[in-house]
Amino acid sequence: MIIQRLALQSLRNRLGTAFLTAFAIALSVMLLLGVERVRTGARQSFADTISGTDLIIGARSGSLNLLLYAVFRIGNATNNITWASLSDIAKSPDVAWVVPLSLGDTHAGFRVLGTTTGYFEHYKYRRGQALAFSAGGPFADLFDTVIGADVARALGYKVGDPIVVAHGLGSVAFVTHDDKPFRVAGILAKTGTPADRTVHVSLEAIEAIHVDWQSGSRPASGGVTADAVRAMSLTPKAVTAAMIGLKSRAAAFKLQRAINEYRAEPLSAILPGAALQELWGLVGTAEVALTAVSFMVVVTALIGMVTTILTTLNERRREMAILRSVGAGPATILGLLVTEAALLVGAGIVMGIAGLYCALLGLQPLIDRWFGLYIPVTLPTAYEWSLLGAILAGGIVAGLLPALRAYRLSLADGMMVRT
Questions:
Q1: What pTM was estimated for this model as a whole?
Q2: Best label site of 18, 126, 183, 399, fewest CB within 10 Å?
Q3: φ, ψ for residue 114 (rounded to 5)?
Q4: 377 contacts 356 by C-beta, under 8 angstroms
Q5: pLDDT over 60 (residue 220)
């Protein structure tokens, strides 16, 4: 207890320097824990990109390729699924619902997705959270469209604005479906998923805008008008992929095997969760770099603490000599400086944790709304406590260097008046 009181009194006498040192450690702790929270939040948000969907089916392809174009709107399908095959699979007694997906067009660089209104009911993210509308609602008319939050923000759209879909996937629209314009019927709330960057239209609308096209080219003149196409049968002949929900998840592997062995045409069925984990294994290496940078910042702060103690040590030679002269042994001097280092690091850890939670409480809604990244405000995990323990231990070890130097200072050297 005597050493602790001496250390506290010594730090109180150097309050400004001690506070700045502890504050630097606090910032490094905030960064380390903040990166850890963002890392785990990003991993969880990535895993929760699609939730509640038991299977995704598409043409025969690799699981990652199917996941990328069906969920993330990246890349292209190797082939389509015929409507007859999809209808046959939907009749399985294990299937609760099917949401078809049709890709192939764009608008201002954003992918256009043809689907049904069931998409807004069954597509879930973040452990079962449903899509919500910030304005308007699902499409009710043939040429209605629902746009994601990023599309609305980037292009400045609001409900009622017209949209012209471009044919193909190029970033520059050379051919457009300007004879059949759409109207914005709804705008989705921010989700942090690919739905934010998607223009949603009905499957029938996808058929309607291509009804008079031949081999990917629009008719030379004339063509079916928007009013005339409403009277036509617009059941699609094929779709790009489909999301499937099952009555019981226990049937997922059985139905997956049946689809993969489907005789009518070559198909693939994937489990979204397993495919997402496989994809994260490829793209998640950046989190290692972020953690490494955070540890380097912590090490830098500890080095700064050691430098500060060493810098003031020369000015404290007389203090050490007086302590030695009144009976303090070398072990006491050693313990004093190690205790000071521990107190500085401990104060920095406490300030860092407090600062982190203040930042989380204030910024969590904004981060969720702007970036769709949900960072829960929870107590530190066991891993985070282990990180904090490692920082405290590292600070104590770092404090040994100036402590050993003070230990070697002789009484005579300390009492000597230097000129």
A1: 0.73
A2: 183
A3: -90, 130
A4: no
A5: no
